[in-house]
Amino acid sequence: MARYIGMNQLTIELRASQLLTLDQIATMSGPKESCAILLGKKKENSYETEEVIPMSNKDSSEVRFTMDENELLKIYEYAVLSNTSVVGIFHSHPSKPFPSETDKTFMEINPIPWIIKSTITDEMRCFIFSDSSKGKIDGIEEIKMIIVKG
Ligand SMILES: [Zn+2]
Description:
It contains three helices and seven strands; from the N terminus they run βαββαβαβββ. The chain has 150 residues and is an alpha/beta fold. It has a seven-stranded mixed barrel with strand order 1-3-2-4-5-6-7. Strand 4 (85-93), helix 3 and strand 5 form a beta-alpha-beta unit. The longest helix is centred in the N-terminal third of the chain and has 13 residues, at 16-28. The mean pLDDT is 90. It binds zinc ion (ZN). Zinc ion (ZN) binds next to strand 4.
């Protein structure tokens, strides 16, 4: 059972259509973990999503995911061209929507919002490793997802 502490001040903003895309990405991969990259802009305390890009899970596994380096490289190039940055990492779990021990390790290396969708409960939650939570359990905090029209 993952432990986490309280809500962070940060929020992540997604359009309803982007939320639907994430749902579809998770549903299509079934019990296997799916993953996606969210591109957008960080404005003050909010990460604003502009684009959801489905990624293939190289591991093709129910317990972990690895993004393809070449796909990632292309996304980073595209991000530069579209003047955006990676504002979130999405993946699904055929279990509860909380970070695994492996997730936590990578969350510390990539301290941006991590959205996890449970394909068993359909719940979606978002977490971040943050400086403000340093010294607290795992350094992981939940962040609020704001869904806007569109
Ligand atoms: Zn995970």
